[in-house]
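Batch 3, record 17
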Amino acid sequence: MNPQLDETQLLLRDTLRQFLERELSFDRVRECEREARADAALWRTLVKQGWLATPFPAALEGGGGGMVCAGILVEEFSRRAALIPIAEVLTAALTLQRCGAPCGGLLRRVLAGEAVVTPAILESGDSFYGIAAEALPAGTAAAGESSWLLRGEKCFVDYAQFASHHLVAAQCGGERGLYLVESADPGVKCEATPALGRIPQAQVRYDGARAVRAAGAEAVGELVRIGRALTCAQLLACMEVSLEQTVAYTNLREQFGRALSTFQAVQHHAANMAMHCEASRFLTYEVLDALERRSADDRQVALAKASLSRAAPEVLMTGHQLHGGQGFIEENDLYFFTLRGKDRSVAWGTAEECLALAATGVEQKARWL
Amino acid sequence: MNFQWPPEQLAFRDEVEAFIRQWRTPELLREYHENEGGGGTPLMRRYYRALQETGWMQMCWPEEMGGAGKNPLYRFILIETFEYWGMPYGNLTYTSIAPALAVHGSEEQKRRFLPGIWSGEYCFAIAYSEPNAGTDLASLRTRAEKARGGWTIQGQKIWTSLAQQSTHIWLAARSEPDLPKHQGISLFIVPTGSEGVSIRPLRCMSGLTTYETFYDNVFVPGENLVGGRGGGWNIVMHALNHERVGLSPTGNLARHYDLLVEELQRSAPQKLRDPVLRNRLAELRMELERHRALALRNAVTIADDDVNAGLASMAKVSGSELRHRLTNLAMDLLGRPGVLTEAAGGRAACGGQQQTTWLMSPILRFGGGTNEVQRSIIAARHLGMAR
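Prediction for the assembled complex:
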């Protein structure tokens, strides 16, 4: 039992943190937000530096860092509010890799920066269970890969416009699976759906788009588990930065002739934020570690996501309460984390959805070690 | 980073559970509760002797102190397992006094007291608070004056729990009245039977008894001063950090959750089919997971030989507040059978344990330093907020 990052993990975290603090200004993020686009230059740097490959096995020329390493990457980029599809690409690519999907060629292209793949699961009902999109056989394509045609609509597809490929959950005769579609296919139509978090996303219509079947029903479950765990890393980053900024601000800001942080009411709010952050850090990396060992079940992942989805809005709003008006203007960086955090708290399953899943196992004995 | 328990530590938990299965009889539990945690009855003494023979009580101490030098996480596993099953293990004497004595006591004091603590022969009552020194502990007024061969103690303490059952009192007194208030405190071990010590019981609403203790020119030999003159405040803080760990086990909370579900399965299975109720149980599990995270985070820090006041306070606040919410919700879900006491026999849901623990929950929130003070400690020590 050791919840601390090891030396290699610390090195990765510190290198990333220093690099991003130096190279990625919040004004650059503001510019991406204004233009409703991903930061393509930052994505190229991420690939060029080899960071994107660090979680993947050596067979893909990766660093073998696994899920914990993926969590570190997502957390660090989220700490700078970076508008890049790091969580989405890692979710899709790690699912394909871990499920042994016959997509080695695509994964190599993703890690080389030649392709970007994002998951497309939810439909208008916003449910992970009701998948209506259909995959229809369309004869046999080259290299023995079955060719399919996709019909249906996907909603809330993060970075759909930026991605070269969508990893689409669809069903064929009631059997669910994951299908890869090139976003440039004439059968794919994206319509931007601006959202609270200012993360580019779209509603996507697949009208006979050509697709390749990547994996079966089990991979859909794995995709959701990984998506939830990496979203926890995003939420953790938002909460921790909000807390750090709040402590710094209340230490500096004076009212009634003394620093705000000397008031007991302010201290107690901050202590509550800190407790949420500490517990969230443990739960996030515990679930990532369990996924790496393939010992995490749906309920454990759901409980962690429910916990962070509940904690994040509370922490973020407390941060605003302690910042007062200063935290409400966009010149202050606090808003990035509030918007992204709330947005991600409902992504990959709200607290209520996750609790409903956890509720199916309430008869199991509670964990105490 | 590795969140797995290694096989040898899981095997140790299994070994502890096997011991508990052997000893966890209704007679032992009754004597334990009737004696309010003290170890004075013949059965309790036999039990503590058997526990001592396992070697677990001192297994994490250095070999030169009679221990086996094992990773302190073994002690965490031991305590959590005992807490889950509601079994005695020496409580604050073991979790708070012994670690403080190991760090601040002299070699002679360690030799004299630690074996007796591990064997259950010694039971310490803690005497910090006074009628006018509660949360503001440093303003305590009980005086210690230098006397020939030792000290004389004059004053009054309150909330000296276990005083009646104890062999010793771990007492903070003002020995240097001219120094600033935090620097003038010393820590003494007072044999409870010393001449001049008197004890008055205070019946609590939980059904347990705490005590007021009075010290009328009580002589304490010089060798019972712990950590030197004026060193008491640091010892008290060190002991309190350990005490806060002991106040926030996950095992006990998990046990109450499991008892609740078992009771619903047995006596109200229709409630368990209600999705609203199931969701409330799922929320409890989520909160248990959060608390387990904080308790483990703190335990690992202690295992790394580093008591972090902020993390200890987080575990204490989290555990004590969850204890209230959990048992409160348990009684809500159980309805009127949930508020029947143990005396109602088989009609009481969960044997009356949810209401008993709910009644105890206020003390854990204000005891060991109020949760308000803990939050201030988190702000100052963990977050570095200006004071």
